[in-house]
Amino acid sequence: MKRCLLYIVPAFILLVKSAYAVQPTITEAEGYSCMGDEKSRKQTEQAAMIDAKKNATEYTSTYIKSETEVKDFALQKDIVTAYSNAEVSVIEDLDKGWYRDPSAGDCYKIKIKVAVTPDQEAMKRIALASASTGTEGNISIPVAPPPLPGTELSATQGSPTTPDVVVVPSGQAYIYMVPNTTGVYFYNGFWFRYYEGYWFRASSYGRNWGMVASVAVPQVVANVSPEYPRYLPPTYNRIHANDLNQHWQEWDRTKEWDKHDWFRNELKPDVVQQRQALIQHEREEHRIKRERIRQALDRQQQEQHRLEMEHKRQVAKQQQAQHTNKLDHPNSKKEKEKRVRQQKERNQKKKKPNKEKKGKQEKKRE
After folding, report:
1. Does one domain contain both 73 and 118?
2. pLDDT confidence of 273, banded at 50, 70, 90?
3. How far apart are CA 44 and CA 55, in angstroms?
């Protein structure tokens, strides 16, 4: 009996238009194996580890293909090749142990956290294809989000400086967000970022963002609107980055912020409703603006198409006029009469041998 269960927390591959960069996908995978009559306990444990690595590789490959629009068979093949030759490194043993299966006997299961790094050459081919085809080409892969405001300079000098944060209501746990920035969260020791319809995750602020499957994003994070901190009062309490790094676990355990009036006020249903109403209003304004831009572009494309068709008609009309003028030219008439006369002469020459042949056949019959 063989079973597998996977839970992915990927730090997805990030392909940019002009170059390629492959980051390992961090995956949690389970592997199983049973002894039977032919394997020792050590061989069974090794088989379970191999099964877990294989499951991690297969799941990662399937996930990336599902998140990647690939229409070219060769590129699809490159993705399969990249992960069939992937390097799987065990980061941590999360759980392992023997158990008794009623039908298979003594079995061993292991749950591991691994880093799956695809074949560099295959991913390079995919990245180059993405760069050459562009957004209208055969492949469309989510690209890394741009640097967060204020991190460009600090990133060149070392680790980006973590900004101050605010704590926002999330129901079950504390979620921290960056003021005046959309879609940047801190939760349970990790940074999350929502950008262009995709979720990303990083272990430190401002760098090495890896794409995360939406199902792997904690629901308490996904439930908080990306725009939320922009509508908090200017006087809303800010938390220093050093305090966050040192005390966030203690604050979660003791429910620190529930003791403060400014946080309890933010939990009131009417305040939450007010914040959400403002966010929905902003989203609707953006939707209308995008729709107007789209309509303007559609009109521009239609006008361009009309002008192109009109130009083609004018060119065809000019070519037809030139052809007609050429036929009406005196020299053209003489050439035409000459060709007609030559054709008549050729026809007469063909008829003459036929008459002679017919005359000979009549004499022969006589």
Report:
1. yes
2. confident
3. 16
